[in-house]
Amino acid sequence: MRQDELKPPLNSKHNRKQVGRGDGSGHGTYSGRGCKGQKSRSGGTKGRGFEGGQLPLIQKLPRKRGFVNIFKIEHDIVSVGELAIFPEATEVDIEKLYQAGLIRSPKRVVKILSDGEIHHSLVVKATKFSRAAEKKILAAGGKVERT
Length: 147
Description:
single chain; CATH 3.100.10.10; 3 helices; three-stranded parallel sheet; alpha/beta
């Protein structure tokens, strides 16, 4: 077995480097820290995000910009003009709107708005209606039902 292949015994331990014990020790005077400067002083290491005295990025970013309203109710909006894809005398409910791809989820609040025109009668069931949308559906001979 060659000398470089030998492993040290399991209980071997190096002695800690002792610094500041005189010039004869080889680690006296500056204790291996060199001369002046931030790294030569005690407590010289700075925390996370320290950028050498330049204004840290985290301080440049704006803080406390608004808040998140956890009680906000998300609405799926459908215009009256989009309801024209359904044939006459159809009962249009939230499930049919979802199957037609007009709303994202059948569990959300659905509001019908008055954009567009409708020329045939439909029975429309939704959570909310704008007044103008309600008038357009009724004028076309349809019905409005809130669920």
